[in-house]
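are you around this afternoon, could really use another pair of eyes. what follows is a protein written twice so to speak, once as letters and once as structure tokens for the fold. i want to understand how the tokens follow from the sequence so walk me through it. anything you notice is useful, everything is just below.
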Amino acid sequence: MTKVRRADGGITFVKLSPLNVGALVTRGLDLAADYHFNGGQIWNDPLQLGLSFVGSYDLRNDTVVDRSHPENTFHYAGADLDPKFRGNLTASFSPGNTTCNAFDITGNVTNTTVNGLSTSVTTNSNTNFSAPAVITTNTLATNLSWSTFLSLNSTTGPNG
């Protein structure tokens, strides 16, 4: 990778080249915490408040270019494009509702249930798991297709 910087330290140009990697070595911690509590009442309905956190801490993220020359190792943990710590903090409030959410490793909601009504979101490799492929509420499914730059191409719902 080649970076060109201005006198003030700002990056003006970055050139990334393909790299034939000999080995990847990673270590880290995955963290999750969820706390919900009764927040009293709002409009004569119970108010549920919640905080959720999902994150990871990279202890090590090394790329060994050539195993026969381990001195040629790139240490990415804590670098510009690979922070040591990353995560998602979400807050929720539900007046009169009971809500349960499930998240994948990147913090995307994969399933949510509100007062017994379940909705699930399925992703796939066509969008690098960044956009929903199918959204299902109870038994009604909506299929979505995306372009390579994540523009919605088409949707097909329960009625066609």
Q: What stands out?
A: Residues 95 and 151 are 34 Å apart (CA to CA). Residues 99-160 form one domain.
